[in-house]
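User: I've been trying to design a sequence by hand for this structure and keep getting stuck. Would you show me what you'd pick, starting by listing the structure so we're on the same page?

Assistant: Good idea, let's start from the same input. This is the structure you sent:
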């Protein structure tokens, strides 16, 4: 745990009421801007932004038995591309699909939901789709967001066909490998706006992203601090497919189709688990293995 100063780092003046803390590391304190400038050559060597504690909850509205979530300690200077890679490890995905991060515009979300629920919602969508036939890169059929952070590789397999539904002409987009976490999470213009990480635009694995707090330290390595639930199978068929797979393992007498699905999960799918989900293994998640892989990701 980093020690927080109770005196000026330059002149040692006491008094917590008058001291202002370094805006980056939040640990060193100063009684004036002059003292901060004077002390910077010494302080800059160990001035690091503390990690973020971020919780990612997979489809909390539909995946509940058990729920699937992970909390990660994330370096503030890491890119969103690195965060994606850490999440792939934490949830046991195979990195075969496209992803994005979105900062939602709740007014736009409300309007889109009202349109979807209206009698003309589907008709309007089909008309927009028909009018946009041609170059996928020129199609914008998604809901407006405050910001969309995109996968540098947008051509992964079948995911490309879903691109129009991810994009909106008024949504700014930034590349995940060029944007650092602190550039978004410390930006006051996004404060209190819901964040979402989505992987696989076919199965639509939406992860509700919550900024829990700042950690007490700054590291260059992601760490999984808490979680629950076995990760879902790649290409299982979204939430209903995952529920059906769990039903197969919980069945006393699984049918032919259920046995085939279990064999597929244990043998063929890209993130297969040879041990299956029986005997309560749908609640098992490998925290130690996750953190070992996250350390290797950081080159440790």
């Amino acid at each position: 745990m980093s020690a927080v100063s109770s005196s000026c780092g330059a002149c040692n003046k006491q008094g917590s009421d008058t001291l202002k803390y370094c805006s980056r590391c939040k640990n060193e304190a100063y009684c004036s801007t002059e003292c901060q400038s004077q002390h910077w050559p010494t302080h800059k060597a160990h001035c690091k932004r503390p990690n973020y504690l971020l919780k990612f909850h997979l489809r909390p509205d539909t995946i509940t038995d058990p729920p699937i979530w992970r909390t990660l300690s994330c370096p503030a200077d890491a890119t969103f591309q690195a965060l994606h890679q850490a999440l792939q490890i934490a949830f046991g995905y195979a990195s075969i699909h496209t992803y994005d991060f979105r900062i939602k515009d709740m007014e736009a979300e409300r309007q889109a939901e009202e349109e979807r629920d209206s009698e003309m919602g589907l008709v309007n969508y089909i008309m927009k789709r028909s009018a946009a036939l041609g170059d996928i890169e020129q199609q914008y059929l998604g809901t407006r967001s405050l910001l969309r952070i995109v996968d540098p590789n947008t051509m992964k397999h079948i995911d490309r066909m879903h691109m129009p539904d991810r994009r909106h002409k008024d949504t700014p987009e930034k590349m995940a490998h060029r944007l650092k976490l602190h550039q978004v999470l410390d930006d006051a213009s996004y404060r209190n706006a819901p964040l979402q990480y989505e992987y696989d635009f076919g199965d639509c694995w939406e992860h509700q992203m919550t900024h829990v707090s700042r950690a007490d330290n700054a590291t260059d390595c992601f760490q999984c601090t808490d979680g629950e639930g076995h990760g879902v199978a790649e290409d299982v068929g979204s939430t209903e497919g995952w529920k059906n797979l769990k039903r197969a393992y919980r069945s006393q007498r699984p049918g032919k189709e259920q046995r085939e699905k279990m064999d597929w999960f244990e043998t063929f799918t890209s993130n297969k688990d040879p041990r299956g989900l029986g005997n309560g293994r749908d609640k098992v998640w490998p925290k130690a293995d996750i953190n070992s892989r996250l350390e290797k990701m950081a080159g440790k």
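That's my pick for every position. To get oriented when you compare it with your attempt: The radius of gyration is 23 Å. The first strand starts at residue 20 and ends at 21.
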